[in-house]
Amino acid sequence: MSALKLDLSGQVAVITGSTSGIGAALAEGLAKSGADIVLNGLGDEGEIEALRKRLETDHGVTAVYHPANMLEPAEIEDLVTSTAQRFGRLDILVNNAGIQHVARIEDLPAASWDRIIAVNLTSCFHTIRHAVPVMRRAGRGRIVNIASAHGHAASPFKSAYVAAKHGVIGLTKTVALELAEAGITCNAICPGYVKTPLVENQIGDTARARGISEEEVVRTVMLAAQPTKKFVTYDELMGALLYLVSDQGASTNGSSILVEGGWMAQ
Known about the structure:
- By secondary structure, the chain is of the alpha/beta class.
- The chain folds into two domains: 12-192 and 232-260, NAD(P)-binding Rossmann-like Domain (Rossmann fold, 3-Layer(aba) Sandwich); 194-231, no CATH class.
- Helices cover 47% and strands 13% of the residues.
- It has eight helices and seven strands, in the order E-H-E-H-E-H-E-H-E-H-E-H-H-H-E.
- A seven-stranded parallel β-sheet has the order 3-2-1-4-5-6-7, sandwiched between helices.
- Helix 1 links the parallel strand 1 (12-15) and strand 2.
- Helix 1 (21-32) crosses helix 8.
């Protein structure tokens, strides 16, 4: 039995929302395995440039940054097409960009609903529709959508986020079926709670929405759902991603890989 292939040398990966948090960690893992990286996301220009340079210096790969706004379809198209033009290929697409707004549904602004659906779900449609022709020409590709345990189960006060993540899983399955004979797979990774900047912000928002302390949010809302009582780590998510983009992951298609400490087993 062969070991898991981790050498991605010569491959090119686009990771949306990769200037911090989960996305930056996934970009680091792919670069460590030899893939050239296209970073995307918001943040301080100096910090983004420092991340880009560090990926190149530490891992000997090419790393570039594209500032596409996930609310703008034309910019998303340019993210994909400019990658294909520069590198001549696009092997791995990781749809990770995401935003959140925690509120009762009657208090959730319509604009927040629209933004969450656009960034968390609709942007995946746009990246995939432009990446697929590039991958078809190569006869191989890996699409990985970072969904969530909330793509399988709901929590109060997160109507837009839960709806979007359920949609991502449906999109994943449909794309997988359409591309099953093209050498292209499409899968989702569904993390539980990871202590990212987004989750850090949710702690305060959820505390206000529920009228409880931030400590109680962590203990009774977030980690209460995960039987391990531990936040999911970046390395654990990276392990799932590397499997899905490897040759050994070729027959895993349309799947949702849960990395959530047993949350969905309850």
